[in-house]
């Protein structure tokens, strides 16, 4: 199927530059002037003293065992539970009364890329703001209880908005665990905001950074590193830390090292010329097998011919492990239990770095302990989480990269016409930010459905070779001219409900605006998700009918949550422009105006008389 003609290259470059914010989703890396370096960490981070508030007095510790079965009223981790369902059993707000939902309170946040997940425990809401400001708020009315503000080196926010955005924080015992923009992992006292311990993992001046946040698995904090597209030789890694003092316990390299299993999969490239393999998001955890699951990003530069992964050398392997893979790790040692590579040698920036959803599913008449994930291609892929065995897959949106998938092994046959080559412009669908991005899916045990925020679009991809005599310094090394899929009606966004038991789509709601927020599902029969046009919506989980919507003050570009305090249920979502994902998608709908600044937390509830 042929693509219709896109705008001239000049317009493509304009669109590219408008959307350019982070090398993870961009074509050409942008050089940034470096200011004189400020101290890495202030001796005295700014902490607003806590009020003598009843909410703080009532705050109890969160022992690791509580994370195994969180109270229904709380939201204690990134996707509420270790299986990353993004599901809450709360049902006070339901399909009958959600039409009455209104703003209970709101809170202005630091302007910047706002990709955050609030946490709630014992009536206190903990909120990460762009540029490492953490606040404790009364979850019933938004009163500030305490505030921690890290002293961040001045060049970090100038480098790139995403350098200072984190998608989640964690909690355990009496501490909040935060991955910082200067590449430390710190623990804050939940009642005061004071620093309990501070561990530096790497040197931020070399380009390392965090985007996803920590996962607590028993007595270990597991944290993935990003920034590996900034020409960091040898790629990224995942670390394990002691919950008591932050001490590093182990380090797993997400680019296979020479002389180790998978180390010969980089087309003969030496370690110093292997780049990428970021871990962009937090993981999931199976306490029954004591296994942590994480997804790994793509190689850099994205264009395989520029990075040396194509053409394939005689007798060599160019799969580029462990990019595009699911990793199953022992959280105590970092030892690899198994892996499955979903897309070997990804040359499109179509990685598989998102959440791994743990569900027991019927497969061929037997219940399997499954792991479900969806990469940028929008293909639902299901593995056995005990051993990595392939189970099944299902395509959602239009794509032209994969011609076929082996039903027994999951091995993918590539459409060679969609492979980018130097000196040629190639059409590939979806485009580089993916038909789905970091905004997470949700699963409901009520319906057995996976709810997916999706987007439909393509890209004319033009590689930009490295000039002779120069070395790779980071970025994708391509221009992406993004446009609509063949035969498009102009609607870019979708929220789909897919029955994982029946392996079939149940419903799809399509919108002109791209879907930019994560989904959550509730016991009240609702799915909440948000979009680029600032609408936050509630869907009927069985039919996909929009039952309620409100236009917020900015892009819904984060992870919503729901919680309950003193018998009253609330739904909270942060809004704010600035992420590279949202800015890239915005080029597809230039008529939709987006505020340049202004981030906020909106908290909704039913009126007291409803």
TrEMBL record:
Residues 75-392, 501-571 form the Pyrrolo-quinoline quinone repeat domain. Keywords: Oxidoreductase. It holds the Pfam family PQQ. GO terms for molecular function: oxidoreductase activity. It comes from the Bacteria. Its cofactor is pyrroloquinoline quinone. Belongs to the bacterial PQQ dehydrogenase family. This is Alcohol dehydrogenase (Cytochrome c). The lineage of its organism: Bacteria, Pseudomonadati, Pseudomonadota, Alphaproteobacteria, Hyphomicrobiales.
């Amino acid at each position: 199927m042929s693509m219709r003609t896109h705008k001239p290259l000049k317009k493509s470059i304009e669109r590219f530059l408008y959307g350019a914010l982070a090398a993870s989703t961009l074509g050409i890396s942008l050089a940034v002037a470096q200011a004189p370096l400020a101290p890495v960490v202030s001796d005295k981070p700014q902490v607003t003293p806590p009020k003598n508030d009843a909410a703080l007095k009532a705050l109890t510790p969160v022992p690791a065992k509580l994370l195994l079965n969180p109270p229904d009223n709380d939201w204690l981790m990134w996707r509420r539970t270790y299986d990353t369902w993004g599901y809450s059993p709360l049902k006070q707000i339901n399909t009958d009364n959600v039409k009455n939902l209104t703003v209970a309170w709101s809170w202005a946040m630091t302007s910047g890329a706002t990709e955050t997940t609030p946490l709630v425990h014992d009536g206190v809401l903990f909120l990460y703001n762009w540029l490492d400001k953490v606040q404790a708020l009364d979850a019933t009315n938004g009163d500030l209880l305490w505030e921690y503000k890290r002293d961040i080196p001045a060049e970090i926010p100038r480098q790139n908005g995403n350098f200072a955005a984190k998608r989640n924080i964690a909690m355990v015992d009496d501490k909040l665990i935060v991955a910082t923009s200067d590449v430390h992992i710190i623990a804050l006292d939940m009642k005061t905001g004071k620093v309990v311990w501070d561990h530096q993992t790497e040197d931020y001046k070399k380009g390392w950074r965090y985007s996803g946040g920590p996962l607590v698995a028993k007595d270990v904090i597991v944290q993935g590193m990003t920034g590996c597209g900034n020409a960091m030789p040898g790629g990224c890694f995942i670390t394990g830390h002691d919950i008591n003092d932050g001490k590093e316990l182990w380090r797993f390299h997400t680019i296979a090292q020479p002389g180790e299993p998978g180390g010969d999969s980089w087309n003969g490239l030496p370690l110093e010329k292997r780049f990428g393999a970021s871990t962009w998001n937090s993981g999931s955890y199976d306490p029954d097998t004591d296994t942590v699951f994480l997804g790994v990003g793509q190689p850099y530069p994205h264009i395989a011919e520029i990075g040396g992964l194509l053409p394939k050398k005689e007798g060599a392997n160019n799969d580029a492990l462990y990019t595009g893979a699911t990793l199953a790790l022992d959280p105590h040692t970092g030892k690899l239990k198994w892996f499955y590579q979903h897309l070997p040698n990804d040359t499109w920036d179509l990685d598989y770095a998102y959440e791994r959803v743990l569900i027991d599913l019927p497969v061929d008449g037997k219940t399997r302990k499954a792991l479900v994930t969806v990469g940028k291609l929008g293909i639902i892929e299901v593995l056995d989480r005990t051993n990595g065995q392939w189970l099944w897959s299902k395509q959602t949106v239009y794509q032209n990269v994969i011609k076929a998938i082996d039903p027994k092994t999951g091995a993918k046959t590539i459409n060679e016409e969609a492979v980018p080559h130097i000196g040629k412009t190639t059409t590939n669908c979806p485009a580089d930010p993916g038909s789905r991005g970091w905004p997470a899916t949700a699963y409901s045990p009520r319906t057995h459905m996976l709810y997916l925020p999706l987007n439909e679009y393509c890209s004319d991809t033009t590689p930009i070779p490295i000039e002779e005599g120069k070395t790779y310094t980071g970025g994708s090394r391509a221009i992406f001219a993004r446009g609509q899929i063949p035969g498009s009606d102009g609607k870019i966004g979708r929220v789909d409900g897919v029955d994982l038991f029946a392996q079939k789509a149940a419903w799809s709601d399509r919108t002109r605006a791209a879907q930019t927020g994560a989904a959550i599902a509730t016991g009240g029969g609702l799915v909440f998700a948000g979009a680029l046009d600032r609408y936050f919506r509630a869907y009927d989980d069985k039919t996909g009918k929009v039952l309620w919507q409100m236009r917020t003050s900015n892009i819904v570009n984060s992870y919503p949550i729901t919680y309950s305090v003193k018998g009253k249920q609330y739904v909270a979502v942060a809004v704010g422009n600035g992420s590279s994902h949202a800015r890239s998608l915005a080029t597809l709908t230039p008529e939709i105006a987006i505020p340049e600044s202004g981030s906020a937390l909106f908290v909704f509830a039913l009126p007291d008389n409803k």
